[in-house]
Amino acid sequence: MKGMILEPDMKKSVPEESATALIDEKIKKLGDWRGKMLAKMREIIHRADPEIVEEMKWRGTPVFSHGGIVCTGETYKSVVKLTFAKGAALEDPAGLFNSSLEGNVRRAIDIHEGEKVDEAALKELIRAAVALNLKGKKLPKSRKSTVE
Fold first, then answer.
1. What percent of the chain has pLDDT over 90?
2. What is the number of structural domains in the chain?
3. Which residues are paired to 55 by β-bridges?
4. Around Cβ 132, how many Cβ atoms within 10 Å?
5. In a domain, 49, yes or no
6. What is the pLDDT of residue 43?
7. In this structure, are residues 42 and 61 in contact, taking their beta carbons and an 8 Å threshold?
8. If you ran DSSP here, which 8-state letter would residue 118 be given?
9. CATH number of the domain enclosing 46
10. Range of 69's domain?
11. Does any domain span residue 19?
């Protein structure tokens, strides 16, 4: 069902275009540094991987996916948080991950007002997360039938 996003608290799917519009609306409604930062992170994510699909899940959380969830873009009072679904399995040589470090699966980047994010390092994390999602999702090899 490519291009459709299923909202857990909704009875029907939401077209991908609607999810993008909902993210646009969320950014606009924030109206402060958090909206600007979320918009900037979104832009970097799409530059890192133009095939990223935008979704809205969990009652309004922007989700960026390619072969599975890459990361979410959450906003809180004092932080914009990028949570990588499989972050614990990713190399982070630049040390961007600074939150949710104790878990076995996720890792997050908390961005506070005025902080700068290493764009090149973030792009590498995005690409690595996509590669991890796509690993093992190749089509199965066709089985050769043998005739005796």
1. 68
2. 1
3. 63
4. 18
5. yes
6. 97
7. no
8. -
9. 3.90.1150.200
10. 4-134
11. yes
